[in-house]
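User: My collaborator sent over this chain with a note saying "see what the structure looks like." That's all I know about it. Can you take a look?
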Amino acid sequence: MISDEERERLRQTFDQAAGFYQRSRPDYPAELFDDLVTAAALAPGSRLLEVGCATGKATIPLARRGFRVTCIELGAGLAAAARRNLAGLGAEVIEGRFEDWRPLPGTRFDLVFAATAWHWIDPAVRYQRAWAALRPGRHLALWNTIHVVPDGGDPFFQEIQEVYDEIGEGLPPGSPWPRPGELPEQSAEIEASGLFQVTHVRQFDWERAYDAEGYIALLDTFSGHIAMADWQRERLYSEIRRRLGMRGDGTVRRHWGAVLHVARRLEGPAGGGAGA
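Assistant: Without extra context I'll predict from the sequence alone. Here is the result:
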């Protein structure tokens, strides 16, 4: 578990990737958004609040479906990129910390959602802030993208670990390699808030192929790689280029996994004080 100070430091690194985040990060599968719309009972015109939109990877598909999206983004560069990417789609991007933001009086949302961003929000207040922003009976939706390794998956990732170990950025001993469809759920944590009841959970997985430069550009959007010393990145990236250059097609196949959680806002004593 990282400290609050370390979480905030790493959280702020993403703004350095604002110029290439949109093209380097993978798109979420359309099926995920189809499932979200059904599970959260959304309709065209529904008001959505996104926590940590970055450059709009999840925002754009939902705005194109006719939803009115308000985004809260910490990074100035990311917020500016999101505004450019969302131009003409009717979405609003607000620069700031979700922990500090408050909706205008009388404004409530049909969905609060976070796509690969919720773990960066202060756990002491994130569920209370989401609860307070929602209309009664409406929903919170969360998902993270995680690297998964299926049977028969590309061995590159296990092989390159020796370079991570060499530069002092290796995985802790015994770290698991998550498999598709076997990712941990957050249902217990969500319901432990006393503010939400999980109503829907579904796992998704998909694959993308990267050439060396495309894969390095992806790594440059990850907080741990952004925070590396220059010599560490240079050693790692030169080895990635060398090893992929020895492959016939010069590419690496990376599988992605995500767990969509949809939870309904509760009323009554548990939630009564959350909006205070």
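A starting point for your reply to your collaborator: Confidence is low (pLDDT under 50) at residues 269-276.
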